[in-house]
User: What shape does this take?
Amino acid sequence: MTTVRASRFVSTVALSMCVAAMVGGCADGAGRDDAGEPRPVPRSAPAQDDLLKSAESALVQRCLTEREVALPAAGSRGSTEKAAAPRREFPYGIDDPAWAAEHGFGGAAETEQAQQQEQQTPQAGKRAAEQQQRLTDAMFGTGRRELSTRTATGLVVKANSDGCLAAAQRVLYGDQVRWFRTEVAVNNLGAAAHDRVTRDPAYRAALARWARCIAPVHKAEDPAELRSAWQRRARDLDPRQATDLQRRYAVAEARCVRSTDLADTGARLEKDHAADLRAEYADLIGEHRQMRDRGLRYAVRHGL
Assistant: This one.
C-alpha cells in the first residue's frame, strides 16, 4: 500500500494554480458584470472550472493575507516558464517524431532550469526555500494529516485540514471532508483508467511489438524504461551530447509508437475503461457534481 501526502499528489497543482492566479491579479468582484450584477453560473465545464479556480484562489488569498504570508513576486516565475518546452501529453509514448526531434522527451528545458536554480548563492537559496516552505505550510497545513481517502488505483492520499486551501474549500463546498474525498477520487479516475490500460492484454501485445521495434536502438520494455536508460547514460555525457542522445531516443520511441499503433491502442482502450469506471463510481461522481454546483452558486452569489 502506498500513501501519498496530498500536497505532493493533488495539491501541488492547486498551489501552482493559486499562486499563478493570485500573482496575476485575482480580485473580488471578478464574478460580476459591468453593471455590478452577479453573473449567472456558466454552462460549459471549462468555464465552470475557471470560476471555481478563481473563487478558490480569491478565498485562499484572503486567508494568506490574514496569516501574513507573502506570495511570490509577479516576475519571479516568468523567465523560467518561457524556456519550458511546449506541454504535450503522451500517455502511451510519444507519437510525433517531429516534436521528439525538436524537444526530445520534453524535459531538457526543465533540467536546464534546475541547473540554473542550483547556481543561486547559498543564502539566496536558503531564503527561497524558507519562503516556499512557509507558503506551503500556510496553503496545505502542518502536523498530523487528518484527511485520508483511497483512490481507485489503491493509493491512499492524506492531507491536513488546517491550511488556507482547506479553509477555502469549506467555504465553497460546505463540507471539506466530503469534498476532499470526492475530489481526490474523481480526479484519480483518469489515472485508474490508464492503469487498467497498461494491464490490458491488447495493450500488452502492442507494447511487446514496440519493444521489438526499439531493440536496435536500446532494449526496453516500455517508453518509461527507455527514458530511464537515457538518464543513466546522460550522467556521463556533456550537456550537448546528452541532449543529442535524448532526441535520438525520443525520435526512435515516436517512430516505433507510430509503427506499432501503441498510442492509438492505448487511447482506444482508455475510452472503454474510463466508461467502466464512470459507471462504477457513478454515485461518487454525482456527489462530487452536487458539491461543485454548490461552489459555483456560492462563487456567483459572492462575486468571486
In short: Residues 82 and 109 are 10 Å apart (CA to CA).
